[in-house]
Automatic annotation (TrEMBL):
Ranges where the Gfo/Idh/MocA-like oxidoreductase N-terminal domain occurs: 39-166
Transmembrane segments: 12-31
The keyword Glycoprotein is annotated on this UniProt entry: no
GO molecular function list: nucleotide binding
The keyword Glycosyltransferase is assigned to this record: no
Keywords, sorted A to Z: Membrane, Transmembrane, Transmembrane helix
Top-level lineage group: Bacteria
Species in which this protein is naturally found: Parabacteroides acidifaciens
Organism taxonomic ancestry: Bacteria, Pseudomonadati, Bacteroidota, Bacteroidia, Bacteroidales
Gfo/Idh/MocA-like oxidoreductase bacterial type C-terminal domain segment(s): 215-436
Name of the molecule in the record: Gfo/Idh/MocA family oxidoreductase
Length: 439
């Protein structure tokens, strides 16, 4: 009988160097977990986030397989191809190489071989790529934060209504047991009626501001114009993009043209938990006010903020930079969860409460990647569809606008617009350079 290793070795290699497996593989050869039965995933963006958590997690999956990687940095692209090929070679004890490298994401999206994409690019590229992915019928796992402004996120949500693709915000916090447990207790009324929510993000990106940098030659391995993409054309300097041939925390995370900074970077995790526990995943506040400080120079995101939100039902939320936690206070007690897994409550009765069969059980302990792939297999929604991710990051961006405006703002969560404030409304959209695509 043909063994799995023999079958893979005898597979046909096309002119591109990709191993092409038959559409139908005999079950006696590979069984239900055959590569032909798995979801073909392409990685778009091969930086720090991709090579550390994302690619290794997907390599372990029995539901999907990475068939393509894409990056505008040739060094990163070549490394990602090697990482995937080696991962499958080690796992399967064979010379199977099913990964193809691309420098242009549009070629990935036009490939019939690709079923789903995992987008791990700088934030300013998230929405344009996700929109094009949806239009090409690709399921989408999108790194957090999904957008750099509310208007772009709403545009994606509207596009997704027209295309039946599965979507997932790639944040693992909803699948962390203690976080989902905290939300389960709150949404099942174990602390009574929610009155106040406190949350904070860590000061990871804080430090000395970086002064303006001199223009540098563009590295030979980087397609800088494509890296800029929808962002405005500006001279290259390394601290604006990422370090050459390295995977440290990139400079673009502190430049407001490409990222909102820590308010959204970690806020995408913790605000998502706050919104989930408050059962406001598809809506938002009616009042926002806050204050904060911004770095000066090339790195110019917020280094301090203190923001207050008020919902229509009277619930108040307070958001700042401190330590990574979410605290829910209700009429009958409180629950607090601090990253990574410190769960406390005002009483052991609350902390140890059992959730009955007829009550809402929201825990889903699949990893974020397995949740995404399972949803594609079953046709069901993921635990964090992109519309909820949009509402989550909108909360962060509303706070950012309130700090910039320096005044109390009134918000219509249904229309997603400010009430009687044209200056604030003008900040909902960031103009883009439409050289590569239109949103």
């Amino acid at each position: 009988m043909t063994t799995r290793r023999d079958f893979l070795r005898k597979s046909i290699i096309g002119t591109t160097g990709i191993i092409i497996l038959p559409t139908i593989v005999p079950s006696y050869v590979l069984g239900d977990k055959a590569p032909s039965n798995r979801i073909n995933v392409a990685m778009i963006g091969c930086g720090r986030q991709a090579v550390n958590p994302n690619i290794p997690q997907l390599l372990k999956s029995e539901l999907g397989q990475i068939v393509a990687v894409c990056d505008v940095d040739k060094w990163r692209l070549e490394n990602a191809v090697k990482q995937v090929d080696k991962g499958y070679s080690d796992r399967k004890s064979c010379s199977y190489k099913g990964c193809r490298g691309y420098s242009d994401f549009r070629e990935v999206l036009s490939s019939k071989e690709v079923d789903a994409v995992m987008i791990s690019t700088p934030d300013h590229w998230h929405i344009p790529m996700a929109i094009e992915a949806a239009k090409n019928g690709k399921h989408i796992s999108l790194e957090k934060p999904i957008s750099t402004c509310i208007g772009h996120g709403r545009r994606l949500v509207e596009v997704l209504k027209k295309y039946p693709v599965i979507t997932r915000n790639d944040s693992e916090f909803r699948t962390l047991p203690q976080f989902s447990r905290a939300v389960e207790l709150v949404r099942n009324g174990r602390i009574g009626k929610v009155q106040r929510i406190y949350l904070a993000v860590p000061p990871e990106l804080n430090g000395e501001a970086l002064p303006p940098q001199s223009t540098m030659p563009v590295p030979e391995e980087l397609d800088y114009d494509m890296w800029l993409g929808p962002a405005w054309e500006v001279p290259y300097t390394e601290k604006r993009v990422h370090a050459r041939k390295a995977y440290g925390r990139p400079g673009w995370m502190r430049v407001d043209s490409y990222c909102n900074g820590m308010i959204s970077n970690w806020g995408a995790h913790l605000m998502g938990i706050a919104q989930w526990g408050n059962n406001t995943e598809y809506t938002g506040p009616v009042v926002i006010e806050g204050n904060g400080d911004f770095d000066k120079g090339l790195w110019n995101t917020m280094n301090r903020f203190d923001i207050r939100y008020e919902y229509e039902n009277g619930v108040e939320m307070f958001f700042k930079i401190e330590r990574p936690y979410v605290r829910f206070e209700g009429t009958d007690g409180w629950v607090e969860i601090e990253y990574p897994d410190k769960l406390t409550a005002s009483s052991d009765t609350i902390l140890n409460a059992e959730i009955g069969r007829d009550e809402m059980q929201i825990r889903n302990l699949l990893s974020d990647k397995e949740d995404f792939l399972t949803a594609i297999k079953t046709g069901k929604k993921t635990l964090e569809p992109l519309e909820t991710a949009h509402r989550t990051i909108s909360m962060c961006q509303l706070g950012l606008i309130a700090v910039k405006m320096g005044t109390q703002l009134k918000w219509n969560p249904g229309k997603e617009d400010f009430i009687d404030d044209n200056a604030a409304s003008a900040m909902l959209n960031i103009p883009i350079r439409e050289k590569y695509l239109k949103m």
